[in-house]
């Protein structure tokens, strides 16, 4: 594909490696690199390949995401962060995935899949499947309730083909200034740990906790957003490098006369003769539609305001009459151009959302270029 014909993102794998190394050094433990949702839009396979010598384990949201990594040749352990449906037990065993477990039905199905000698991949050669127990300490969306976790672990030990390789919890408010509830969750998780023995890996810290709550680091941390150079909260104890730049091209340049409208619905009316440019990117590429009238892009190192409705494949921006802009010129949606920068924080705030959503919304048709 000729990347000059459409929007594309440039992804700096060296920056992701540097971020992972900085986080691992900061936390002084193992690193579980979260590459769910196609590595937050950065590309799960290229990111995992870049981190194979740094990460101790990878984490995904679904069994299918884990299978894709295995088929791509990723050899490190792969954790599913949420308990899969029991009918996926055979796939989990075959591809040697490490599932979160929060219900005994899944545990029984996994045990049976190993016991029955279902076909195994070359990697999955042991007679037991490793699992990590997900403990609900107050986020209340998944997990075994912390008051029942010790008993649940005892029950798992009755299944001879299961091995509890880890235990973990999810923080609900670690990215907030007030971390009182995060500390309550930490206390609850610690109370579970005091009542169990011989679980090799204990982990709780997402990106926010990995950066700002050293008491939550345990044996490993689970950074997601911070791997990609984005701070989840105000705390910035280490230097992170943004890994993604989103670019497009100018597809059309013209003047519109006073009173003329722009785009669907003609919601923008030109107050006077106005020079405009059509940009070949839209909500079909994942650019937030609510940014009409308030979003900006960079052309020639200058900020240009988006006017009129953002279409599926195009948007229009206002130029100065003296701007030397031509068809084919580079447009930066997120990133630096000259001395100006539009950060993902700015885009997310103007769209009334969070950086996570902006990243994972960048469509598949937007080509990824790696360096």
Descriptive account of the structure:
With 371 residues, this protein is α/β, with parallel strands linked by helices. 26% of the residues lie in helices and 26% in strands. The chain has an eight-stranded parallel beta barrel, surrounded by five helices. The chain has a six-stranded antiparallel beta barrel with strand order 11-14-17-16-15-18. Helix 9 links the parallel strand 9 and strand 10. Helix 10 crosses helix 11. The longest helix is centred in the N-terminal third of the chain and has 15 residues. The mean pLDDT is 95.
List the helices and strands and how they pair.
Blueprint: E1 8-11, H1 13-27, E2 30-34, H2 36-40, H3 44-50, E3 57-60, H4 63-71, E4 78-80, H5 89-94, E5 98-101, H6 104-115, E6 129-136, E7 144-145, H7 149-156, E8 162-169, H8 180-193, E9 201-205, H9 207-212, E10 220-221, E11 244-256, E12 261-262, E13 268-269, E14 274-279, E15 296-299, E16 302-307, E17 315-319, E18 330-337, E19 340-342, H10 344-350, H11 355-361, E20 367-370
Parallel strand pairs: 1-20, 2-3, 2-10, 3-4, 4-5, 5-6, 6-7, 6-8, 8-9, 9-10
Antiparallel strand pairs: 1-11, 11-14, 11-18, 12-13, 14-17, 15-16, 15-18, 16-17, 18-19
């Amino acid at each position: 594909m000729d990347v000059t014909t459409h929007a594309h993102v440039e992804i700096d794998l060296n920056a992701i490696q540097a971020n992972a190394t900085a986080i691992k050094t900061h936390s002084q433990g193992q690193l579980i690199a979260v590459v769910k949702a196609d590595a937050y839009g950065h590309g799960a396979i290229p990111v995992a390949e870049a981190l194979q010598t740094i990460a101790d384990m990878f984490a995904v949201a679904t069994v299918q995401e884990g299978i894709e990594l295995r088929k791509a040749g990723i050899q490190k352990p792969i954790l599913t962060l949420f308990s899969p449906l029991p009918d996926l037990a055979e796939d989990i065993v075959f591809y040697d995935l490490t599932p979160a477990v929060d219900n005994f039905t899944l545990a029984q199905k996994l045990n049976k899949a190993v016991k029955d000698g279902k076909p195994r991949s070359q990697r999955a050669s042991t007679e037991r499947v490793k699992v990590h127990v997900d403990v609900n300490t107050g986020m209340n969306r998944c997990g075994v309730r912390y008051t029942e976790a010790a008993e649940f672990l005892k029950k798992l030990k009755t299944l001879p083909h299961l091995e509890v390789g880890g235990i973990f919890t999810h923080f609900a408010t670690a990215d907030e200034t007030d971390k009182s509830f995060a500390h309550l969750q930490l206390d609850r998780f610690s109370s579970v740990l005091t009542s169990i023995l011989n679980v090799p890996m204990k982990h709780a810290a997402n990106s926010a906790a990995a950066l700002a709550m050293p008491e939550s680091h345990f044996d490993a941390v689970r950074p997601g957003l911070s791997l990609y150079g984005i701070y989840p909260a105000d705390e910035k104890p280490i230097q992170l490098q943004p890994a993604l730049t989103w670019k497009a091209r100018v597809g059309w340049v013209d003047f519109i006369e006073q009173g003329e409208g722009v785009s669907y619905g003609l919601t923008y009316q030109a107050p006077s003769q106005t020079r405009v440019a059509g940009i070949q990117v839209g909500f079909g590429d994942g650019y937030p539609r609510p940014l009409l009238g308030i979003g900006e892009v960079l052309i020639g190192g200058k900020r240009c305001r988006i006017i009129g409705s953002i279409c599926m494949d195009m948007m229009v921006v206002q130029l100065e009459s003296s701007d030397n802009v031509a068809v084919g010129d580079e447009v930066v949606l997120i990133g630096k151009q000259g001395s100006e920068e539009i950060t993902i924080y700015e885009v997310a705030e103007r769209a009334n959302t969070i950086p996570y959503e902006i990243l994972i919304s960048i469509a598949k048709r937007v080509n990824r270029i790696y360096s």
